[in-house]
């Protein structure tokens, strides 16, 4: 860095090093702000991902179960309708 007329110039390597340091400091501060600054942070993130995956699987299973139940109710209603129609058209036997 050489100041010329009040302007500081940086080489590409110096600028890149400065940006890398700033990015690392920003990342460390961001992790500290959300409580993930310690050595167990990777374990915490893995557990959060596992929990999120389990939540998504559970949500999908609940929707599938609701759709299956709705289809069964619909088929049951059709079955009752067919049974009533047969009773009426076959003399109630």
Distance between the termini: 102 Å
Taken from the alpha-carbon principal axes, the silhouette is rod-shaped
Number of domains: 2
With helices defined by DSSP (H or I, 4 residues minimum), what is the helix count?
Answer: 2
- Strand proportion, as a percent range, falls in 5-15%
Estimate the helix proportion, in percent.
over 70%
Which residues sit in consecutive blocks of at least 5 with pLDDT less than 50?
none
| Strand count | 2
Biggest beta sheet attributes = 2 strands, antiparallel
Folded structure, characterized:
- With 93 residues, the protein is mostly helical.
- The chain folds into 2 domains: 1-37, no CATH class; 41-93.
- It contains 2 helices and 2 strands; from the N terminus they run E-E-H-H.
- A two-stranded antiparallel ribbon has the order 1-2.
- Strand 1 and strand 2 (7-9) form a beta hairpin.
- It is rod-shaped and about 110 Å long.
In short:
The protein is mainly α. The protein has helices spanning 12-33, 41-89; strands at residues 2-4, 7-9.
SSE blueprint:
Blueprint: E1 2-4, E2 7-9, H1 12-33, H2 41-89
Antiparallel strand pairs: 1-2
Note the main attributes of this structure:
single chain, 93 residues, mainly alpha, 2 domains, two-stranded antiparallel sheet, 2 helices, rod-shaped
């Amino acid at each position: 860095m050489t100041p010329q007329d009040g302007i500081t110039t940086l080489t590409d390597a110096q600028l890149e090093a400065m940006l890398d340091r700033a990015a690392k400091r920003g990342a460390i501060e961001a992790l500290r702000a959300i409580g993930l600054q310690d050595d167990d942070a990777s374990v915490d993130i893995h557990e959060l991902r596992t929990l999120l995956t389990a939540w998504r699987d559970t949500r999908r299973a609940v929707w599938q179960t609701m759709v299956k139940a709705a289809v069964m109710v619909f088929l049951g209603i059709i079955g009752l309708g067919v049974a009533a129609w047969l009773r009426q058209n076959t003399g109630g036997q």
